[in-house]
């Protein structure tokens, strides 16, 4: 990539990942081959196979749900402080195996090691620590003096934060006394299966957590299983709707964390350099494969030219390449299918008349890569302004007044997150109250903390994960 400085390669050793030729599913406290197909998980940075997994079949779903049901009674009756001890143990083990998990995540997902090491793994451990602290205080959480767990939770997660999403789902469920059947995404099963090892080593009673690698059919089997009392799903809005339809009228509980099309709103009094860093972090972080990515930049007209020039200068210094290199800013796209979707939508942006720009950027020949891309001259009707791209692609729109910014930001079927950049505290508060988004960041973007609830409005889903609110999704009403 064109840069004023050339950096020597600084790759993290892949040996740290302790990659094995094959991984097994985890049912009733034991590892075993699934009854489904043997599949290879691929390194998206170079398309080489990493390991083989014999995926779960439908009979494994039955076994896992039965094991979770048997484990539920004793687990839910354990005093909260005892459940908390298991969660603390898991949290500490994630920290101890942090380097291994970070390298494994970067290999399987394609995200830069800097992100997996500094964001995904520490935040996953932090979620276990945080909910461990709640386990013996549920009676003080505002859900009545003696809140009860729901039962067996079926949890289905996507590929963009494989370990972190597993932690978001498992930690609050266990703290509240539920048992779990979790399915990672088909392209990123490895860290969830290592988390299963950690759970086994923490001596959790068999059946409390079951982890089934598999594709959409296994997700569907978990959703449809009569022995599952609650579904927690993170993924696309389309699949969320399918799941909602299939649970309708069943009386079973559901929480959905779906897509987003966040607006990052920059006012003319914002510190431009700081805003540029926030925009870069908001959309080029994790290759834009973040549900809450700041994929629409709304900039006040009077500072638009200055901001866009600064942003382009900054993008010229980003390093795209080997996810294991500690200097890499932008890694690989997770799969060929995701890359094809990004290409299709960016081609549509050009066809609809927006202006496309990318910094000079040499992409590796093998693997799934997409250069950071900025579209200017975008109108609200363009597909790149409406549809979730889930790639390192920013659509820039302008506004003149705060009301116009609010109207444009809210003009989307989604409502997961938004950002506001301004020096005025009163403007932050008034914008936050008018934006229909679950999370509104002020003068920052993409910050996560286990104590803070996260979730959407409208087609971004319902229910909250994280914080005290995250307990509610796992407590009977
Ligand atoms: P996806 O919906 O295709 O898959 C998500 C998970 O659902 C995978 O494990 C998949 O195997 C499973 N699945 C697919 N079809 C299913 C079905 N019919 N029944 C049950 N399970 C099924 O999404 P994806 O492409 O893996 O992930 C990207 C999407 O996830 C994006 O739209 C993104 O916005 C969203 N996402 C949202 C959040 C959030 O917190 N709101 C977080 C991360 C990702």
For this structure, the CATH topology of the largest domain is Aldehyde Dehydrogenase, Chain A, domain 1
How many structurally independent domains?
2
Determine the N-to-C terminus distance: 54 Å
Structural class: alpha/beta
Strand order of the largest sheet: 13-14-15-12-11-16-17
Q: Can you count the helices?
A: 15
What's the CATH class label of the largest domain?
Answer: Alpha Beta
Question: Please, what is the CATH homologous superfamily of the largest domain?
Answer: Aldehyde Dehydrogenase, Chain A, domain 1
Percentage of helical residues? Answer: 25-40%
Share of β-strand residues: 15-25%
Mean pLDDT, rounded to whole units? 96
Contiguous runs where pLDDT drops below 50 for at least 5 residues: none
Q: Would you identify the CATH architecture of the largest domain?
A: 3-Layer(aba) Sandwich
| Form type | globular
Radius of gyration, taken over Cα atoms and rounded to an integer in Å: 22 Å
Catalogue the ligands.
Answer: nicotinamide-adenine-dinucleotide
Strand count, sense and barrel status of the largest sheet are: 7 strands, mixed
Question: What's the β-strand tally?
Answer: 18
Describe this structure in words.
- Strand 9 (230-234), helix 8 (237-247) and strand 10 (253-257) form a beta-alpha-beta unit.
- 39% of the residues lie in helices and 16% in strands.
- The protein has a 7-stranded mixed beta sheet with strand order 13-14-15-12-11-16-17, with helices on both faces. A 6-stranded mixed beta sheet has the order 8-7-6-9-10-18, with helices on both faces.
- It is built from 15 helices and 18 strands.
- The mean pLDDT is 96.
- It starts with 21 loop residues before the first strand and ends in a 5-residue tail after the last helix.
- The protein has 2 domains: 14-258 and 457-476, Aldehyde Dehydrogenase, Chain A, domain 1 (3-Layer(aba) Sandwich), CATH 3.40.605.10; 263-442, Aldehyde Dehydrogenase, Chain A, domain 2.
- It has helices at 58-77, 80-96, 98-109, 113-134, 162-175, 190-201, 216-224, 237-247, 272-283, 304-315, 336-351, 383-386, 402-410, 425-434, 469-472, and strands at 22-23, 25-27, 30-32, 38-43, 48-54, 152-156, 179-183, 209-211, 230-234, 253-257, 263-266, 296-300, 355-357, 373-376, 393-399, 417-421, 439-442, 461-462.
- With 477 residues, the chain is of the alpha/beta class.
- Residues 156-160, 183, 185-186, 215-216, 219-220, 223, 234-236, 239, 242-243, 257-260, 291, 388, 390, 416, 461 line the site of nicotinamide-adenine-dinucleotide (NAD).
- This is Aldehyde dehydrogenase family protein.
- Keywords: Oxidoreductase.
- Residues 32-475 form the Aldehyde dehydrogenase domain.
- Pfam families: Aldedh.
